[in-house]
Specification:
The protein has about 260 residues and is of the alpha+beta class. Helix content is about 25%, strand content about 30%. It has one domain: Fumarylacetoacetate hydrolase, domain 2. The strands form 2 sheets. Strands 1, 2, 4, 5, 6, 9 and 10 form a 7-stranded mixed sheet that branches. The protein has a 5-stranded mixed sheet with strand order 3-12-11-7-8, with no helix packed on it. A hairpin with a 2-residue loop joins strand 7 and strand 8. It is globular and about 50 Å long.
Length: about 260
């Protein structure tokens, strides 16, 4: 049974307050049975509050797309959230605005055409204007990352901020399933992976998103950015860290975290 609208409003309000105060809350699923439909409705209500503050939707993020991140968070399927213009940061990550942040290296797809279902990964590649290297900062408004799939969906897919490299790349001639990445923190190697970790090919994550949005009466539009999911399990972020993400051919992203 789905939650009543008043309860969904209350849960969205609690997520918004956690975002504003950087004070985490208990899992939304504590003592409640949320459906995924409930969770996406709560996400929309949470995002609507941020839009009322002046933010605009600029795209989407797909999460939970690799075995490593699914195992890390104890889930077994992808989810998505909305990207807002206020999530973009240019080089410096304000740690004081975050709760329990982690970072993920991803490929960002800049859409050149709209996508209507049924969508395959080949359709995504044809519709993509460019791909960019991205470092996503994820965060959970739920205390201690104690989340199930419904919790993270409601929490706008645990999104927080993202940084994008300056280099843009045409997809022609690139096999994104073989694209590699290395992550260094404060000069020390942390982890690495390849694009095939993301549902076999990062464009498959975008296709999944396009088909899932269609079920909700939405679609990907030209100019939108889609973050396709992490190559590796998320890496904890600490005050004062410097993170460098080096992709094989897409470019480099560097993030400096405030003290």
């Amino acid at each position: 049974m789905e939650l009543d609208d008043d309860t969904r409003d209350e849960l969205a309000a609690s997520l918004y307050e956690a975002h504003e105060t950087s004070e985490p809350i208990a899992p939304l699923t504590d003592g409640r049975s949320l459906t995924k439909a409930d969770a996406y409705d709560i996400q929309s209500k949470f995002v609507d509050r941020r839009l009322a503050d002046g933010a605009t939707v600029t795209g989407h993020k797909v999460g939970l797309t690799s075995d490593g991140i699914q195992e890390q968070l104890g889930v077994d399927e992808p989810d998505f959230g909305r990207l807002l213009d206020t999530m973009f940061v240019d080089g410096s990550v304000p740690f004081e605005e975050l709760i329990q942040p982690r970072v993920e290296p991803e490929i960002g797809f800049v859409m050149g055409e709209a996508l209507d279902p049924p969508v395959t990964y080949l359709d995504v590649l044809r519709a993509t204007r460019a791909v960019v290297p991205v470092l996503e900062v994820i965060d959970s408004r739920v205390r201690d990352w104690d989340i199930g799939i419904q919790d993270t969906i409601a929490d706008n897919a645990s999104s927080a901020m993202y940084l994008a490299g300056e280099q843009t790349n045409a997809v022609d001639g690139l096999d994104l399933s073989l694209e590699g990445v290395k992550v260094h923190r404060n000069g020390a190697y942390q982890d690495g992976g390849v694009g095939a970790a993301v549902l076999g090919h990062p464009a498959r994550a975008v296709a999944w998103l396009a088909n899932t949005l269609a079920d909700l009466g939405e679609r990907l539009e030209p100019g939108q950015l889609v973050l396709s999911g992490s190559f590796i399990p998320a890496i904890d972020l600490h005050p004062g860290d410097t993170l460098t993400v080096e992709f094989t051919s897409l470019g480099t992203v560097t993030a400096r975290v405030s003290e």
